[in-house]
Every structure is written in C-alpha cells, then in structure tokens.
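re: ur question from the group chat, yeah i did fold both. here u go
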Amino acid sequence: MALVTAYGMLALRTLQFIIRAYAAQSLFLGAATFLMALGSGHRHILIIAAFTILIKGWVIPWFLLKVMESVNIRREASPAVSYPITILGGVGLGLLAYTAMKPLAVNNPLVGRSYILSLTLILLGLWLMVSRRKAITQAVGLLVVENGLYVAALSTSFAMPMIVELGLAFDLLVAVIVLGLLIFRIQNTYDSINTEHLSRLKG
C-alpha cells in the first residue's frame, strides 16, 4: 500500500490529494511498525509507531493542507515532466530498485523485500521532486524520501532506538515548518509557488 500511494502521488494533479496520499502512506507505515512491534516483542517500537501515525500521518499533512489553502494553489497544472512520462519513469525506477535489491531477498526474503520497498520509495520521492514545479509537491517528495529511509532503518535493525526515531521526527517537523515558511515567502514574492522562479536568484 505504501508503493500504491507513492505511485498515486506521481499520477495525481490535485495538491490536496497528493498530501492525503502521503498521509495514507505514513499511516500504512505506522500500522506496519505497530504490527512489527507486536511480532518482535520490542515494545518501545510501539511508541515509534504512535509518533509515526501522529506526526507523519496527521500533523505534517494538516500543516501542508493549511499552507496550500493559504497560498490558494490547488493543482499542479504545469509539471516539469509530463504525467505519462512521470508514471513511466516511476515504473522504471521501481524495476531498478527491484533489480538492485533482489540479491538480498534470496538470503533473507523479509529484509530483502523491505529494502526493495525502501529504495523504491527513495527513488520515487526524488523523482517526484524532480518532475514537479510546485514547492508543496517537492516538499511531499522529500517526505516520501524520508519514509523510505524510515523503512530502511527499521529493516536494518528491526529495533530502531526510540531516541533516534523521536529525534528524526522532531527534525522532520521542524524541516516541514521551515519549508512552509519558504513556500509563503515564494508566494508573496512571485505570486506563485513554482520553484523555477528561484533561478532568478542566480548571479
């Protein structure tokens, strides 16, 4: 389901739906973390799952939706890469991630599949950032990359130290707030949130 939501972000044009797709992805990962905590016996992971659901699944999407309403931008009307090419590129990146991580799945199928998911989310998040011009969509792409790193961290240790995840969650929340302020600034200066306007700062 995390992959379905990631590919959905590549296909969607409405910013509200893109943000909600990220919220759904985070909720799926939080639920998976919760089930992993019950199965592994690492009870402190329950706190990580709760923070994932709360911060990534609710607080950050709520903040981005408020930013979207404030700048009065609803759709990604002129992406840097057309939607059909974006989707095809996403499929290609998914196949690349599968090919790169498939050898790990032979020795340890569970961890190997997790690594495939992790790398796919990272690549799709980067692709979303490259293929879109709106700052909000690019911020969501960065958050998808972070979800991929989150999956990789859990897959590597199966018991990420709680203090590490809580610190990352706080840093992520601060980063999103800074991105929101940057979006406001771009909107006020250029009457648009297309990041291509920032190229005027070169010189």
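okk and heres the other one u asked abt
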Amino acid sequence: MAKTIIITGANGNLGTAVVKKFLSENYKVLAVDQHDNHLAFATGNPLFAWQAINLASEKESEAFIQKSVNDHKQVHGGLFLAGGFAMGGFEDTDGETIKKMFSLNFETAYYMARPLFLHMLQQDYGRIVFVGARPALQPEAGKDMIAYALSKSLLFKLADLLNKQAKGKNVVASVIVPSTIDTSVNRESMPKANPGDWVKAEQIAEVLEFVCSDKGLPIREAVYKIYNNA
C-alpha cells in the first residue's frame, strides 16, 4: 500500500524536488502551498493532490489534516518545509520581526504537526520532519539573524517533546538541517561562493525519502545535518 505524505512549502525550490522524489517512489503526495505554478510536472498524476492552505491559521490546518485522514484513512508522514528567513542582529530585531519569524517557522509547523501527531499516535505509526537551521545550533552563525535562529531553535525542542510523548510507539519526529541550498537565487546573491560546496535540493529529498521509507524504521530522535562541504 502506498504511503500518504503531506508536504508543506511544496511549491518552493526544496518542495518541488521533494514532491518529485516522493512521486517517483510511488507515495501519495498531498502538497500544500499558496501557489502551484512550479508543480505542473505533477498535474494529472493520480498520486498527487495540491491545496492552498493558510498555514498560519490553526483552524485551517486542523481542518486540512482531518480531511486528509478522512479521505485517505491514514497519513504516514508530514514534511513541514514551509518557512521564512530574515537577517538582523539584536540592534535590528524588534518584536514584530520576532513574531513574524515565529509565525513563519514555528506556528506553520506546529499547527499541522499537532493534529497529525495525534492521528499518528492512534495509528501507532508516523514520521514528522521539521526543517531546522544551522544558525539555531551555532550561536556564531545565528548572531546576525536573531529572529530566524530563535524561531528555528523551537523546532528542535518540539521534536524532542514529541519523541518523548511517542516513546515506545513507531512515531518519530526528526529535524533536517541543510546548509546553503544550491538554488538560482542563492547563486545570484552569493556570486563569489562555490555552489559545489552547497547541498542540492535533490540530495535533501533523498534523505527525506529515507526517513519515511521502511529503511528508516529503526531511526529515533534524529537530527540530520545535511551540510555537504558548506
């Protein structure tokens, strides 16, 4: 039976690579994003469905998870790739910036993860993956992006808490930590960098598929640092 996977941020550079990978491995993909203009390759695929959801709305997120469970009986994985980025040290980071990053990086994941995690506990199976960030782990890297680093750091703690609640069950929350992703935008903004040192979206997609596949069954409480040479 094909596993059903929810992917948020599905229309982005990473999201499209992940959607392609999971469809190629015959997962049912429930893609979530505000737009689908980069997902034309999946149009007509019977394993693919897209829906626009306001991930900052707890009500909309819960309704989407409930509908997904009703339609598919079981949702096996949630890959919460949606998020945002902002530069700024303490002198540039006010409360509104903190709130914006908290909403984009934490609330969008939490509102989806909470009802999905409870469903997974009932099914005694599930894989949830959050996208962390190196600046959340390394203060030197995070000091010039305070709001971003703080909001991402909460995802590591959330994964820990979920894993403690799910101990003894086949339900696991993991965090991936990519270095700079090789995208056209990053190449343009960092012309002097060597993109060969960065990580490709397709490589991250491979890791995510491993996590959700039967190959990843014995893994618990994992943080995957996907840095390449960056």
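fwiw on the second one: DSSP finds eight helices and seven strands in the chain. The mean pLDDT is 95. idk if thats what u expected
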